[in-house]
Design brief:
Strand order of the largest sheet: 3-2-1-5-7-8-9
CATH architecture of the largest domain: 3-Layer(aba) Sandwich
CATH class of the largest domain: Alpha Beta
Distance between the termini: 32 Å
Radius of gyration: 21 Å
Largest sheet: 7 strands, parallel
Helix content: 25-40%
Length: 396
């Protein structure tokens, strides 16, 4: 098992260090994709290397390979391969699967946006909430304008029962932490719970080994570009309706600018069919390849309705600014004029206009990097240790 720990070199005597102390387990909804929530679980696991990870579904081929070294414990639902590939199809039965999960631990550190907060335990539950369930409280945004009548009908038919289960699950927890101020407000609205804000960490480091992407280099050279540095903009996102990647792609139609999109999801085919030749779509990249992209991009672009806003932090590690939607978690992670700039609507015209402004502006890479020191994995681990100490009674 991986033993690296995101902890400070100086820690108060008697405080928890992630290993020697109460029995800690980690819970997460499902490990079936690569995204910010799954990166948070990896950060939790590095802070608590002996903690098993409980999850409803686990698909090793489609999530981060680091999980293969962890002690992953799954629900019986995981034996059905169709749900590992299409977890949204299991929506009506996921409450029953969550209720069947029992965790024997003193403290359960929970990463949740819908299900893991309902896992049963004989210990205390600490939830780091990415958002109360989008499909229940932000259903129009979650489904997107192009969702079919069948999806909307099924969600409407089950939402009452699911809301009741979700609120009971939330009230069974001992402490909530929100990944951003916007999620803090949603937790209060959905559950009547007052949550502290704990920003999710970024594990990426400029010390990482970078790895160029042959497909991208060939694409650039075919267009007469020999130097990849700042030759393209970057969009890193799951390809879901509320991420608005189609709007980002549309902003590059008829332009000389190049865009690289990295991600997977249900909207992939639709976006690929509409993109122009100056847009390259990639997926399933290594950490070294992602670091290389951030290192060489001109800026990150994001038009998503984001609960947190991790990708601007990852870009900022490399001193690269961001051009993002003025909404949600980005308001916590992008400082206008210092680490990036905003646009106000998630549409191609607004994004294109923002890029015009960006190209006449300048950003200091050192100031960008310094801003993101507050989001380190070390600080995140220290906050979790303190919270576990408190819940387990190790602090008065």
């Amino acid at each position: 098992m991986t033993r690296s720990r995101g902890k400070s070199s100086v820690r108060p005597v008697g405080s928890y260090n992630g290993v020697d102390g109460p029995r800690v387990a980690i819970a997460h909804d499902y490990l079936t994709q690569r995204g910010g929530a799954e990166k948070v679980v990896l950060s939790m696991s590095r802070a608590f290397p002996d903690a098993p990870i409980y999850t409803l579904l686990y698909d090793p081929a489609n999530t981060y390979p680091e999980f293969a070294d962890r002690d992953i414990r799954v629900s019986r639902l995981n034996s059905l391969g169709v749900f590992r590939k299409h977890h949204r199809a299991a929506l009506p039965i996921l409450p029953f699967a969550a209720n069947s999960m029992h965790i024997d631990a003193d403290v359960v550190l929970t990463s949740s946006s819908g299900w893991a907060h309902g896992f049963k335990t004989n210990g205390r539950k600490l939830v780091h909430c990415h958002s109360p369930a989008r499909w229940l409280y932000l259903s129009d945004m979650y489904l997107g304008e192009d969702s079919g009548l069948l999806k909307r009908t099924l969600l409407a038919a089950t939402s009452g029962r699911l809301r009741a289960w979700d609120r009971r699950a939330a009230l069974s927890c001992d402490r909530y932490m929100a990944v951003s101020t916007v999620v803090q407000g949603r937790i209060a609205d959905a559950y009547g719970i007052s949550a502290d804000v704990l920003f999710s960490p970024v594990a990426m480091s400029r010390d990482a080994v970078t790895e160029p992407i042959p497909e991208l280099l060939s694409w650039l050279s075919a267009d007469g570009e020999s130097d990849p540095d700042e030759a393209f903009y970057l969009c890193v996102s799951r390809l879901l309706p509320y991420k608005n990647v189609d709007a980002v792609v549309g902003a590059f139609a008829g332009r000389q600018r190049r865009l690289v999109v990295v991600g997977r999801g249900p909207d992939a085919e639709r976006i690929a069919a509409a993109k122009t030749p100056n847009v390259l779509m990639l997926s399933d990249l290594t950490d070294g390849q992602m670091s290389w992209l951030y290192q060489h991009c001109r800026a990150l672009i994001a038009a998503s309705h984001e609960d947190y806003g991790l990708t601007p932090i990852e870009a900022g590690v490399w001193g690269k600014p961001s051009v993002v939607l003025r909404w949600g978690g980005f308001l916590d992670t992008v400082e206008e004029g210092i680490t990036g700039m905003y646009f106000d609507e998630p549409d191609a015209a607004a994004i294109s206009e923002a890029l015009d402004r960006f190209e006449t502006s300048s950003f200091d890479p050192d100031k960008v990097r310094r801003h993101f020191d507050q989001f380190t994995e070390e600080r995140y681990a220290d906050a979790l240790y303190a919270a576990v100490d408190e819940l387990s009674g190790r602090r008065s």
